[in-house]
Design a protein that fits this description.
By secondary structure, this protein is of the alpha/beta class. Helix content is about 35%, strand content about 20%. The protein is built from 12 helices and 16 strands.
Length: about 450
C-alpha cells in the first residue's frame, strides 16, 4: 500500500511539474526575508517556474543577504529588487504571488494591501494578532477574489495526510471523543537581556509598526520577538495554532462552541519574556473536546511526541507529529508507524540550506503546489484564509479566556463572543499611531 501511494504521489508531482513547465514564470515578491520567509520562498522556487522580482524587509542587511541568496537559487540568476517599505513594493502592481513572513503584528495590514494590489498570497500563520484583523483579512480576500494560502502546512504533510485518510477517515479509531494537543519544547526565552539601541541596519520604528513601542533588546529581532505578547500571541499563537488546525482538518471540525483556558507565568518569573510558560486550553466542539497544554519547563510525557496531537477513539489511539505518526488499535492488533518522508534525492539542496527545518521542507513544497493549483483553478486552497481565520482566532480566544478568567462562548453567525461586552472590546487590539486598524 505504501509503495502504491508513493508511486501515485510521485506521478502526481511529475504531472504537476509538466503542467508548469510550459507556463510563463509567475512573478513573486516576499515581504519578510528572515528565517521562514526564505524557507517558503526557496521551496516555491523548487516546485514551479517563478521569477522572484521583489523582496522587502526593514532590516537592510537581512534584505541584501536574501537578495544575494535568491539570485543563486532562481533560474534567471537575477537579483530581485529590494524595498524597505512594503507599500512601495506593492504599488508596482506587478506581482502574481506575494509571500508574507513578517512578525505576526504586521500580517493584517500587509495582507490586505497585497490583495488590493491584485496578487494571490501565501501568508504565514497565525494570520493575525487579533480576531478583528482576521475578519478584515478574510473579507478582503473575498472582496478582491484572491487566493490566500495560510502557512499551516500540516494540511500538506504527506505522512499526516496518510494518517487522516487511512486511519481517521477509514474509521480505525472509531468514535473520537478527546484529542490532546501539546507542546513541551523549552522554547520560551529565559533571561533578562539589557535594553539597547537597535542596530543601524534595522529600521526599528517601521519594524514596530502598529504594535506598542518597546525598548529594543537582542531578543526582539530576529526571531526572538515571540517572547513578547506585543508582537504575537505567545506559544498558543505559535504552536497550538498548528496542532489545532491539524486536528480540525483531520476531523472536519469548524468553530469550537466555546474556549476556556488557564495558566500564566508560573515557573520562570525572572525572565523578561511576558508570554505564558504554562497554559492549558479546552476547545469544545460538542461531542469532541480538544485540549491544549504547553509547558516550557520540565519533562515531556512522551519525548518522541513532545509537540503533536493524540487522538483517542474507542477503537484505538493515534499519535501524530511533524516527524511521524503511530496508530495503536485497542483490540491489540497490528500497530502502524510512519515517519516523515524526506526528499533529498530530488532536492539535495535541502541538506545544506542554513536553518532549514528539513523535516518540514516536503510539506512546504506540497503546500506551494496546492497554492499554485488553486490559483490556476481560482479555487480555495487546502489552508484557505477562512480556515486560518478560524484556527488563529480560536487560539487568540484561548489567551483572552486565560486573561479574563472565564469561558468564552463563540457566536459564529455574529462573529463575536456571546453575551460578553468586555471580551468583545478586546477582539481588536489598539494600534500605535499613525497606523490604523483595518476594522475601525
Amino acid at each position: 500500500m505504501q509503495r502504491r501511494q508513493f508511486l501515485k504521489t510521485s506521478a502526481a508531482a511529475f504531472a504537476a511539474s509538466a503542467l508548469y513547465a510550459d507556463q510563463k514564470p509567475r512573478r513573486v515578491g516576499l515581504i519578510g526575508t528572515g528565517w521562514y520567509g526564505k524557507a517558503d520562498l526557496f521551496r516555491l522556487i523548487q516546485v514551479a517556474p517563478v521569477e522572484v522580482v521583489s523582496l522587502c524587509d526593514v532590516d537592510s542587511k537581512m534584505l541584501s543577504d536574501a537578495a544575494d541568496m535568491t539570485a543563486t537559487r532562481q533560474v534567471s540568476r537575477k537579483r530581485p529588487r529590494t524595498y524597505r517599505d512594503y507599500r512601495e513594493m506593492l504599488k508596482e502592481r506587478d506581482l502574481d504571488i506575494v509571500l508574507i513572513a513578517t512578525p505576526d503584528h504586521w500580517h493584517a495590514l500587509i495582507m490586505i494591501e497585497a490583495v488590493k494590489s491584485g496578487a494571490d498570497l501565501y501568508c504565514q500563520k497565525p494570520i493575525s494578532a487579533d480576531v478583528r484583523e482576521g475578519q478584515a483579512m478574510l473579507a478582503a480576500a473575498r472582496e478582491y477574489k484572491r487566493v490566500v494560502q495560510v502557512g499551516t502546512q500540516r494540511r500538506s504533510t504527506p505522512h499526516l495526510v496518510e494518517a487522516r485518510d487511512q486511519i481517521i477517515r477509514e474509521g480505525k479509531l472509531g468514535k473520537i471523543g478527546l484529542v490532546e494537543i501539546y507542546c513541551y519544547y523549552h522554547m520560551r526565552a529565559s533571561g533578562n537581556p539589557p535594553d539597547m539601541a537597535p542596530p543601524p541596519n534595522l529600521d526599528y520604528e517601521m519594524w514596530t509598526g502598529p504594535a506598542p513601542m518597546r525598548p529594543y533588546n537582542q531578543w526582539v529581532h530576529p526571531r526572538g520577538w515571540r517572547a513578547f505578547m506585543e508582537y504575537g500571541n505567545g506559544i498558543v499563537g505559535d504552536m497550538c495554532v498548528h496542532m489545532l488546525d491539524m486536528t480540525r482538518w483531520m476531523m472536519d471540525l469548524g468553530w469550537p462552541r466555546s474556549v476556556s483556558s488557564s495558566g500564566g507565568i508560573l515557573v520562570d518569573k525572572a525572565s523578561k519574556a511576558n508570554i505564558s510558560d504554562t497554559q492549558s486550553a479546552t476547545f469544545d466542539f460538542g461531542d469532541v473536546k480538544v485540549v491544549w497544554e504547553h509547558r516550557s519547563w520540565g519533562q515531556s510525557p512522551d519525548p518522541k511526541y513532545d509537540w503533536g496531537a493524540t487522538f483517542y477513539g474507542d477503537k484505538g489511539t493515534l499519535k501524530a507529529s511533524v516527524y511521524s505518526y503511530d496508530f495503536t488499535p485497542a483490540s491489540g492488533g497490528a500497530a502502524i508507524h510512519k515517519d516523515v518522508t524526506y526528499e533529498y534525492e530530488q532536492f539535495p539542496e535541502d541538506r545544506t540550506e542554513k536553518d532549514l527545518e528539513r523535516h518540514v521542507a516536503p510539506a512546504i513544497r506540497y503546500h506551494m503546489k496546492n497554492l499554485l493549483a488553486s490559483i490556476d483553478t481560482r479555487s480555495k486552497p487546502v489552508a484557505d484564509i477562512e480556515q486560518g481565520y478560524i484556527s488563529t482566532s480560536s487560539c487568540i480566544l484561548a489567551n483572552l479566556s486565560m486573561d479574563l478568567g472565564r469561558t468564552l462562548v463563540w457566536d459564529q453567525a455574529a462573529g463575536q463572543i456571546a453575551g460578553d461586552a468586555e471580551a468583545n472590546e478586546r477582539l481588536a487590539r489598539p494600534y500605535r499611531a499613525p497606523w490604523k486598524h483595518p476594522v475601525t
